[in-house]
Amino acid sequence: MKILIIEDEFNLADAIASMLKKEKYCVEIKTDGEEGLDEALTDIYDLIILDVMLPHKNGFEILKELRDEKINSKILMLTAKSTIDDKLNGFNNGADDYLTKPFHMDELIARVNVQLRKSKVNILDTIKVGDLSLDIKSMELSTIDAGHKVKIIGKEFQLLELLMHNYNHVMEKEQLFVKVWGYDTECDINTLEAYISFIRKKIKTINSKVNLKAIRNMGYILEVNDEKIKN
Description:
By secondary structure, the chain is of the alpha/beta class.
């Protein structure tokens, strides 16, 4: 499961990330409010650990914007403020839990595990975009109307899941590459292009009306119903 940490104290964020990785979670860190919001809006994270006091955009603003955009990731607020008004502000705007600094790392991990156990109950078995349906459990891609199916696994599955969560929006090549292969990979951008080609062929094989397009000097877009491209 994927976790995003939005925390401007990098040493703290790094310590949290290290503990979460030991629990086998995939973790990303952002130390700026605006950058954190942009990352959270990709809607690929199961849980977001969100600090309140952040540069450029505070945690309460980020929380409100995420819920306004129907981002349903679990959100655990971190703050040095412990007043009831601050906690109510967070809960009223859609926070799932609230932890006051300083805290014990074991308590944070326990709260994360509780929230993610809750979220497993509500995880959708399929992602549907246009006439495409991606079955999360069987890893099968199919057309809803015609019922044509094809297996899609590994990196192909991860890429398509990202594109489907962000359909009709251009996703930059670098963004896709880092999210799927990470920073430490020995692969290069040509690997991404090859996998995009594999996915495009599978979409064509099942006769879907959804198009996976390359946008020159930008990236890729999963385009549905000929809607205008949104940047």
